[in-house]
Task: structure prediction
Amino acid sequence: MGILTLPALRKIVLGVWVLGVAAFAPAKRLSANVDSPSTPEQRGERIYRDGMGASGNPIALRLGQDERVSGRVVVVCANCHGRDGRGRREGAVTPSDIRWEVLTNAIVAALPGARTRSSYTARTFVRALTLGLDPDGTKLSPIMPRFELAAGDVADLLAYIKSIGSLRDPGVTSTSVRIGVIVPPIETAPELGNEIVHLMNDYFGSLNKSGGIHRRDIEVHPLVLPLRLSDRSRAVEEFVSNENPFAMVGSTLAGNDEQEVHRVFASNAIPIVGAMSPSQRWQSDWDSSPYYLFPGMADQARGLLAHLESPEDRSRSQVVVFDRGEVGEGLFRSSIRTIAEQMGYASVIEVSGQPGIDDLAATLSKAAGITRRSLFLTQFSRDDGPWIGSFRQRFPVAKVMTLAERVDASLFTQPMPDSGKMYLSFPLLSSDQSPLEMREYQALALRLQLSDTHRTTHLAVLASARLFAEALSRCGPDLSRERLKESLEELSDFQSGLCPPLNYQKGRRVGTGGIHIVEADFSLNSLNQLGWFSVFAP
Result:
């Protein structure tokens, strides 16, 4: 890919996109409609989405050909038919559209041999739920459960089914779509928070002046995090309760309680589009996980370990995971160990602090059959140089690797003698932007007086906004959160012009899905781009 000087890296690397937003406090479920249902439609919604009857207990059901009675809910309506009732494709199976206006229309065969059925009534709908028969007495697919419903639950579920087609998701009107964006505390990043809001308002304001998306304006509502960690859970809850946005766009999520933030929005079915986070993993539950732009730290580690050692060589390779022993490093170190073990590395050793090289060598030599060795740094600064230099002298052919965002930024401009080669992962390089888009961004930055310090975050926010606009456009005028998710998961190589192509699908919520691997030599003042590599590799 070419040799470059390290000072030139500032022209290639746009910087770290992690904002370092601190942890959220644990959040509770917010939806009053689900926790305290008071109307038939609300109680029916709980049955449809959670499988919970009016008694508060899971509704029993029968599955498959053996008519086995299940003592707990293993399938709920929304899993297959979607929250909007339209049916969500599951592999080779496409569940029926069960909106009431569809059910009450008969199906007439357009071609010989095609399936037909009479229109549903309330009575035949209940029979389908409990006996698995359509209006004409034909058996439904064995995939369709037969539910054991109390009379009150039947009435509640029917009331909700009848309302699905006429309900709009929160945040949507005939003339507008309301979205939210999370910005860091004013006290810690006043400039950045304002710039994020200005960028979102400018981008969607331009769209609105051109007629919006399907004649709907996009309204941006910022969620400004409070400084105190103990206040953040309430802030998120109040934002959802007061604003109830259709989706969150271009938001940064970080901290030990990041998953709790996910659950707040997931419990209210609010998608998070174009999220940025250092800690997410692509294995997250697909239905509740945000649609991330870039791989998090664990995914980047996976990419480095996957592509710097072939599957065949891992059976005789050892990975030494090194951190300085600082608070918070242990979790990342343990994650790297787990990943390396899952990938088939023969030996994985965790090292905390800077142990004596002789003692370390004795420990490493206990693993038999090792012919190859890698040193994975959870972070790297000038203070680590002497110890790593000693490690290299003892193990001269060992590969040293880390994440670019975990490297002391001064090393990219001020060489460190005798540091040797190191492999770095970058989720984003300046080569990922098109010249035209960068010229437009530079004009935008000048007009909005944006600081150059946060340029990477600016580009990520704009890429998220474009991603959301594209998915929303593909939904058509009949908009729902379910259709938004389907549109996102049908995107293939979406080109924002600001980051690598974005691809999502069911079970995969990391858009770029890869990293740039760069071979850097901080002593020779040079680096070599090795290429773009998937983080989903085995």
User: Anything to note?
Assistant: The CA atoms of residues 223 and 236 lie 8 Å apart. The radius of gyration is 27 Å.
